[in-house]
Amino acid sequence: MAKDLHITFLLDFYGDMLTEKQREVVECYYNEDLSLAEIAEEKGITRQGVRDAIKRAEQQLIEMEERLGLAKRFRKVQEKLTTMCDCALQIEAQNEKNGDDPVIRRNVEAILAYAQELVD
After folding, report:
1. For the segment 54-99, what is each residue's pLDDT rounded down to a tens digit?
2. Could you say which DSSP state residue 17 is in?
3. What is the CATH number of domain 5-68?
């Protein structure tokens, strides 16, 4: 079973919506990098039981993302914030070349500070 990092990302958004057993098994598999056999031994279930729990949880995570789109929206916001910061830095550099207007500098600093608050 190949590990899909997309599932790890979805787990961050929707993990609390899984059953406790599913969440624990998926976290062991994806976040702790345990094998199916190691998880089975730790949880006292069969290797096939672990695999089935992971597959069900993966499907539920994918379905939740298809319905809610929170992870997709988060990525889009992150991309737009990065673009916004890049633009602000370009404005800052151009401003420094053209006499360093203090109003432009303060606005650039404010944009970068607001973007950082959203990231944090």
Report:
1. 999 999 999 999 999 999 999 999 999 999 999 999 999 999 999 9
2. G
3. 1.10.10.10
